[in-house]
Design brief:
CATH class: Mainly Alpha
Strand content: under 5%
Helix content: over 70%
Radius of gyration: 14 Å
Distance between the termini: 32 Å
Number of strands: 0
CATH topology: N-utilizing Substance Protein B Homolog, Chain A
Shape: globular
Number of helices: 6
Length: 136
């Protein structure tokens, strides 16, 4: 399984955070991997789960940064698909030294276009651009 496919699976797992309480998430993670086991996630499961845990631990910080940096938007107003994509991308941009910033942005836009609405890619790209400028 390539990095793009792993990132997409991670997005799907992280998306469940929006619909389940923190207490329910361990069971959701277990169910996710049971479902995905049938579709060939295989050995990548360990990497996906470890990265999910790291992102989950950073969610309060990531959400705080999003709320601080976005104008007229906050994590309660952003669509669930877009919010999940932004959380994943910001984690990669700010905390994962193995992922170049441009790759994180490109992948986020691709996932947003696939799972979101017509304008999701542009919305995600616009917000991530604000964070990319910060790093320059």
């Amino acid at each position: 399984m390539g990095r793009h496919e792993q990132r997409e699976q991670l997005f799907k797992l992280l998306f469940r955070v929006e619909f389940n309480s923190p207490e329910e998430m361990p069971e959701q993670v277990r169910l996710f991997f049971e479902d995905e086991e049938r579709s060939g996630i295989g050995e990548a499961a360990v990497q996906i789960e470890e990265k999910y845990q790291r992102i989950r631990d950073k969610l309060p910080e990531i959400d705080g940064l999003l709320n601080e940096k976005t104008e007229k938007w906050n994590t309660k107003r952003i669509g669930k698909v877009e919010l999940t994509v932004l959380r994943l991308a910001l984690y990669e941009m700010l905390f994962d030294e193995d992922v170049p910033q441009g790759v994180a942005i490109d992948e986020a836009v691709t996932i947003a276009k696939k799972y979101g609405q017509d304008s999701s890619g542009a919305f995600v790209n616009g917000i991530l651009a604000k964070f990319a400028k910060q790093g320059d």
